[in-house]
Specification:
By secondary structure, this protein is of the alpha+beta class. It has a domain at 4-50: YegP-like (Double Stranded RNA Binding Domain), CATH 3.30.160. It contains one helix and three strands.
Length: 70
């Protein structure tokens, strides 16, 4: 299954993109980019890094003083 990137212009001065799962669910939304070329470069970087990205778990452990649930 392959997700899809959708490039958009917000009607003001910036561009951005969304990453959608195969079922159409929005998985991620980019921040604003000043131009289309920069937004496309942002997509390229996400595509390159996504498969290799490390996961850092910042969630509290069960029973800690923050009351987090896992």
């Amino acid at each position: 299954m392959i997700g899809a990137f959708e490039l958009f212009h917000d009607g003001n001065l910036s561009f951005g993109f969304t990453l959608k799962a195969p079922d159409g669910t929005v998985v991620a939304v980019s921040g604003p980019f000043p131009d289309k070329v920069s937004a496309v470069e942002g997509i390229r970087v996400v595509r390159e890094c996504a498969g290799m990205g490390l996961v850092t778990d910042l969630c509290p452990m069960p029973g800690d003083s923050h009351g987090g649930l896992v």
